[in-house]
Request: fold
Amino acid sequence: ILNVEQSPQSLHVQEGDSTNFTCSFPSSNFYALHWYRWETAKSPEALFVMTLNGDEKKKGRISATLNTKEGYSYLYIKGSQPEDSATYLCAFMGAGGTSYGKLTFGQGTILTVHP
Amino acid sequence: NAGVTQTPKFQVLKTGQSMTLQCAQDMNHEYMSWYRQDPGMGLRLIHYSVGAGITDQGEVPNGYNVSRSTTEDFPLRLLSAAPSQTSVYFCASSTTGAVNYGYTFGSGTRLTVV
Reply:
């Protein structure tokens, strides 16, 4: 079983704060790292899919970086808003054979942004 | 586009009953997966498929069967329901270009086994 870990488990911030979370994953046999946002009573939605060491992706106030050699990715939210409150999931996809298409998720970071 | 459609949305089963959770997608996606979500456990992969006729086990396959006879459909069968299978089940699909787009998830099926 692959080990994909996220920290912290939960986070409370004030509106306007910037914040970041970490995802660690196996550094061998890497193919892609996904980030998803999961709002309460909805389904997970893809934020980023990252494949190359040193990749940086950005969507509005949210950005992510990737280090495949050491097996970690950071997700940053600049100027958090209450609508950013959600669970943020990362997921690892390995390379080769039947690993393609198989995502292993971390347990998620629950973000609450207080007005 | 309907995206990924899961039925039913809610289901209550008695221990020992069998049932099939349906999942259909209209995006011509090759990859399809089933996950279960339990409190404190995140999303755990049950079974997945990389194309019609090809399936493989995930992390928690016991008690579940799948088949993929068409690109569009990926049903999940519970053979003999147990209370431990009480969970929320999500189906997800993606193109082989998953590296670009990520997975699209269905709205989930909440299953209670009594």
Observations:
- The mean pLDDT of chain A is 93.
